[in-house]
Amino acid sequence: MKNITNNSLWSKLTLLLNVLLLVLFVVSMIFLMKFDKTNLMVVDARASYEKSYENYVMAQHPLKQDSAEVAYYQYKLDTLQQKLPNVDRAGRKALEESISVTKNTLSDKQKTMKEHVDQLAAYEAEYTPLKEEWDALNEANDKAKSSFVLIAVITLVVFICKIFTFATWNYKNSINLHNICHWMKDGMPAWMSYVSWIIPVYNLLKPVSFFKEIWEETDYALEDKGIVKIEDKDKYVDNSGLHLGIWWILTLCSVWLMNFILYKTFFTEGPLFVKANHGNIAIVAVVLLVLCLAEECFLLFTYNKKNKMLVDNADKF
User: Fold this and answer.
1) How many CB atoms lie within 10 A of CB 234?
2) Residue of 196, 205, 202, 188 lying closest to 163 (CA atoms)
3) Are the C-beta atoms of residues 113 and 121 closer than 8 Å to each other?
4) pLDDT tens per residue across span 145-178
5) Distance between CA atoms of 292 and 288, rounded to whole angstroms?
6) Of 254, 278, 282, whose CA–CA distance to 159 is shortest?
7) DSSP labels, 189-225
8) Measured between alpha carbons, how far is residue 169 from residues 110, 164, 253 in Å?
9) Closest to 173 in 3D by CA, of 205, 240, 206, 221
10) How far is CA 149 from CA 18, 138, 270, 297, in A?
11) Coil, strand, or helix at residue 2?
12) Which residues contact 220 (CB under 8 A, 6 or more apart)?
C-alpha cells in the first residue's frame, strides 16, 4: 500500500486565509476611498496654490534689484553731499546739478520699490491662507495614504501566506500522485508548486498548469484503479478545465490587471484618474476578488473529495 496523505487541513487553512484576505481587501478599498477623497481635494487645490505661490515668488524678485539700486543711489547721494563743502565756486554748480539728478533718481527708485513692496504684500495676503489650507490638505492626505498603505501591506502579507498554503496543498497532492503513479516521474516535480508562483512572467501560466496536471492525473488514477467507474464518471469528474480556466482568468484579472488599474486610477493623474468613476473601479475590484476566491474555494472543495477517495482506497495502490 502506497503512502497517501489527507491534505484537507492545508485546504481549510487556505480557505480561512481567503476569507481574511477578502475582508482585508474590502477594508483596504474603504481606506483607499478615504485617501482618494483627500487626494482629489489636493489635486483640485494645486492649480490655485501653485499660481499664487508663483506670483508670490515672482513678486520678490524685483525687490532685490530695487534694494540694490536704492542703496547705490543713496550711497552716491551721500558721497556727493559730503564733497559739496569742499568744492570751489566753479565746480559747485555742476556738483549741485549732479546731486539734484541723483535725488530725483533715488526718489524714483524708492517709489518703484514701494510699489513692488505693496504688490508683494498683496500677493502674500493671497498666498498665506492658501498655503495654510494647502499644508492642512497635504497633512490629511498623507495620513489617509499612510493608513491605506498600512492595511495594503497587511493584505499583501496575508496574500503571500495564502499563496504559500495553497502551494503547500498542491505540493502534498503532487507528492501523493508521485507515490502512487509511476508515470508521474515524467510529470512536473512537486517542488514546482512553489517555484511556479515565484518566477516573474512564468507565474502567469505555470500555477494553473501545475494544478491542472494534478487534477487530471488524480482523475486518471481514480479511473485506472476502478475507484471511479467509467459509467459513473460524471458523478465525480467535473468540468475541471472550464473551472480551472475561469479561476485563473479571475486570478490574473483581480491580482494583476485590477491592481494595475487601481494604481493608475488612484495614484496617477492620467486618463483613468480624470475620467473613471473611482468608486465603481473599487467596487469592480472587490467583485472580481470575490468571484476569484469563490471559484478557488469551489476547486478546493472539489479536489478534497478526490483526495478523500484516494485516502479511502489507499490499499488499491
Assistant:
1) 9
2) 196
3) no
4) 999 999 999 999 999 999 999 999 999 999 999 9
5) 6
6) 254
7) -TTHHHHHHHSTTGGGTHHHHHHHHHHHHHHHHHHHT
8) 84, 9, 23
9) 221
10) 20, 16, 21, 28
11) coil
12) 181
Q: Which of 288, 295, 25, 8 is nearest to 165 (CA)?
A: 8
Q: Which amino acid is at 125?
A: A
Report the 10 Å Cβ neighbour count for 277: 10
Q: What torsion, rounded to 10 degrees, do the Cα atoms 226, 228, 233, 235 define?
A: 160
> Measured between alpha carbons, how far is 276 from 262 in angstroms, rounded to an integer?
11
Distance CA 281, CA 284 (A): 5
Contacts of 298 by beta carbon, 8 Å cutoff, 6+ apart: 243
Q: Three cell numbers at 109?
A: 527708485
- 270, 14 contact by CB (below 8 A): no
Write out the three cell numbers for 242: 472550464
Contact 25, 162 (CB under 8 A): no
CB 298 within 8 A of CB 67: no
161: which 3 cell numbers? Answer: 501566506
Residue type, 10: W
Please count the helices (runs of H) and the strands (runs of E) in the chain: 9, 0
Say if residues 59 and 116 touch (Cβ distance below 8 Å). Answer: yes
Q: What's the predicted TM-score (pTM) here?
A: 0.83
Instruction: Give the pLDDT confidence of 259-293 residue by residue, as tens digits.
Output: 999 999 999 999 999 999 999 999 999 999 999 99
Grid cell listed for 297 = 474555494
Buried b (16+ CB within 10 A) or exposed e, 87-105: eeeeeeeeeeeebeebeeb
